Amino acid sequence: MLKLYNTLTKKVEEFIPIDPNEVKFYVCGPTVYDYFHIGNARSFIMADMVRRYLEYKGYKVKFVMNLTDVDDKIIKKSLEEKREAKDVSTDYINAFFEDITKLKIKKATVYPKATEHMHEMIDMIKKLVDKNYAYNIDGNVFYDVKRFSEYGKLSGKNTEELEVGARIDANEEKKDPLDFALWKKAKEGEPFWDSPWGKGRPGWHVECSAMSCKHLGETFDIHAGGNDLIFPHHENEIAQSEAANQKPFVKYWLHFGFLNINEEKMSKSLGNFFTARDVLKKYSAEAIRMFFAQAYYRGPLNFSDDLLTAAEKGLEKINNLVDKVNSEIKKNNSGIKPEFEFNSYYKKFEEAMDDDFNTSQAVAVIFDFVKDVNRVVAPLDNVDVSFYNDVKTFLTKTAENVLGIVDFNKTTTGDDKLTNDLIELLIRLRTEAKQNKNYQLSDSIRDRLKELGVILQDSKEGTTYKIGK
Ligand code: AMP
Ligand code: ZN
Predict the structure, then answer these.
(1) Confidence band (pLDDT; 50, 70, 90) for 33?
(2) Which of the four, 128, 206, 209, 269, has the lowest number of CB atoms within 10 Å?
């Protein structure tokens, strides 16, 4: 029985989907004005693991992630770079797909873009205006927070307390400091769309309410995002959707802890970030996923080179077995089939994941499994291929398909002789470059091989290599 912590009820609850045949899952996606950082990647990867585990359990999952392609930050960047906002967002949408592919994040069922859902957003705002939950002041439409009596139910904030800290900017016309924009009147030089309130563009919060409703319905199962989105973004989404549709919006709210750097949230605005694509130059996708999996998804986690290196090292143990399994399956030997309780490992893996996605325990089960398989086969001369097939099935279903920390299709040594010879040649040239103190060239050979997925390892005995990021 899967249990998960629901931010809305502040309790660990049993997961029961509304439609037993299909789980409907929405995750707030990126604002596409830059490369995403490794903090964003934590949220995307943890959502991916949750989605993959639901699929492991046999659920069909409709997984929707929005792309915010109209926003102040995109407009700012387009003005700085003197090009259309659309060109900025298209570039970073492409970069987003490249990066999530490298991170082994499964594609969503749909990636709705804000600019392609103007009609739905305008419709929702109209409904809110008609029902008196929103008001128009000179082309700007605001949500009237006081009208929604349950405001604060997700974040646990109450409106009186919020009111104390809030204030209205001199250039804002809204009635109350807590009210937020549903429709923003167009300013000179900004992209705009026509609406019943004049030319303008939607606010960020209404994007997610309108797009989730369009793709998943008025009430759906899981809505996820990073902790920073609980307030105001998700609180506002609830206010909009429940007022417009007069139905509960979401059954389970899932929030991911921050990736911190020196105990501070990694974020673009603080400038203390590493892009995911830069981190991927140094660590494999599997190591990055392992680093995240080894921490509880709701808690904070400090970005740490030591932990990433440790994750990479830990993976070697698993990958050594993966290599062995691959080569044994190729050999196709018949022989002894050792006694091995595969079922007990499946059970332990499921118990860990059913316990509010305890991925670090799930990783521990994988390590135990690897250790126990190695122990069982060590004294045997001839192991039957069927045993290795079972080992492969277990690791594929758990470590590869759910956690994404293993890839059976990656080989760690070159398969053909020419590849191996060419790599050896480059290693010799690099050694010569080093001896000639041409470090620029020697580093360049190492880095460019790494980009191709060939990792050089220097030791006292010389340089060896591994294929596979
Ligand atoms: P953004 O592009 O800033 O809207 O963020 C995309 C996703 O990344 C959202 O779900 C955020 O909550 C999440 N996020 C942003 N910063 C971090 C961080 N430091 N750690 C974990 N998740 C984050
Ligand atoms: Zn959202």
Answers:
(1) very high
(2) 269
The count of residues in the chain is 469
154 close to 110: Cβ distance less than 8 angstroms? no
Going from the C-alpha of 16 to that of each of 21, 57, 213, the distances in angstroms are 11, 12, 20
Look up residue 374 and give its two tokens.
Answer: 């190695």
For residue 158, the model assigns a pLDDT of: 87
Q: Which of 32, 38, 43 to mutate to test the pocket of ligand 1 (most atoms within 8 A of CB)?
A: 43
- Three-class SS state of 227: helix
Residue 140 Cα to ligand 2 middle (Å): 21
- Enumerate domains of the chain plus CATH numbers: 3-282 (3.40.50.620), 314-467 (no CATH)
Residue listed under structure tokens 């830990």: 314
Average pLDDT over every residue of 320-331: 93
Report how far residue 132's alpha carbon sits from residue 243's, in angstroms, rounded to the nearest whole number. 10
Query: Measured in angstroms, how far is the CA atom of residue 32 from the centroid of ligand 1?
Result: 12
The pTM score is 0.88
- Cα separation, 423 vs 435, in Å, equals 18
221 touches 252 (CB < 8 A): yes
- Cα separation, 72 vs 159, in Å, equals 26
Report d(CA 464, CA 467) in Å as an integer. 10
Residue 364 CA to ligand 1 center (angstroms) comes to 27
Q: 418 CB contacts (<8 Å, ≥6 apart)?
A: none
Q: Which ligand is nearest to the CA of 30?
A: 1
Whether the per-residue pLDDT at 411 is higher than 80: the answer is: no
Which residues surround ligand 1 with Cβ inside 6 Å? 28, 30-31, 39-40, 42-43, 225-226, 228-229, 256, 258-259, 265-267
Q: How far is CA 17 from CA 60, 101, 220, in A?
A: 11, 28, 8
Quick one: which atom of ligand 1 is closest to the CA of 29? 6
Atom 12 of ligand 1 has which residue's CA nearest to it? 226
| Closest ligand to residue 71's CA | 1
Distance CA 359, CA 48 (A): 12
Kindly write down the DSSP assignment for every residue of 37-105, as one continuous string. Answer: BHHHHHHHHHHHHHHHHHHHTT-EEEEEE-BB-SSHHHHHHHHHTTS-HHHHHHHHHHHHHHHHHHTTP
**What pLDDT digit, counting tens, does each position of 56-93 carry?**
999 999 999 999 999 999 999 999 999 999 999 999 99
Closest Cα to atom 21, ligand 1: which residue? 258
